[in-house]
Amino acid sequence: MVLCARSRSRAPGSRCGFRARDKTGAMTAKALLEGGPDDLAGKLVPVVPPGKELKIPHRGGYEHYKMTPRHEHSQEGQVTVYQWWERTEVAE
Predict the structure, then answer these.
(1) Could you give the count of Cα atoms lying within 13 Å of 28 in the half-sphere of its Cβ?
(2) DSSP character string of the chain
(3) Closest listed residue to residue 76, CA positions, set 17, 25, 23, 34
(4) Any idea what the Cα angle at residue 92 is, between residues 62 and 90, rounded to 5°?
(5) By the 8 A CB rule, do 34 and 24 touch?
(6) Exposed (0-12), middle (13-18) or buried (19+): which is 89, by Cβ within 10 Å?
(7) Is 80 exposed, middle or buried (0-12, 13-18, 19+ CB in 10 A)?
(8) Inter-residue contact 37 to 61 (CB < 8 Å)
(9) Which residues have C-beta within 8 Å of that of residue 38, sequence separation ≥ 6?
(10) What's the sign of the alpha-carbon dihedral 84, 18, 72, 75?
(11) Assessment of whether the complete model's pTM goes beyond 0.85
């Protein structure tokens, strides 16, 4: 799954949740998804690059999530909660 993040601020590492290392050893942020499709809700996903919004390809469209001020404890530590806010379709 490829995740895209957009940020209106240029500050690196801005409030994006827990940081873990990916397969290459680079630091990645984690986000807990809240709302949206049942098969995405409650998932812990990497946020690359860190940002205030996530755009996740899903079933022929994109699910959009926005960062909240809330944090949850997970098996990987403290993570930022991202709330679902809309779905867009892929243009054909």
Answers:
(1) 18
(2) ---EEE-SS--TT-S---EEE-TTS-EEEEEEEESSSTTTTT-EEEESS--SEEEEEETTEEEEEEEEEEEEEETTEEEEEEEEEEEEEPP-
(3) 17
(4) 5
(5) no
(6) exposed
(7) buried
(8) no
(9) none
(10) positive
(11) no
35-63 pLDDT, tens digit each? 999 999 999 999 877 788 999 999 999 99
Q: Cα separation of 30 and 62, whole Å?
A: 19
- Please tell me the distance from the alpha carbon of residue 2 to that of residue 32, in angstroms, as a whole number: 15
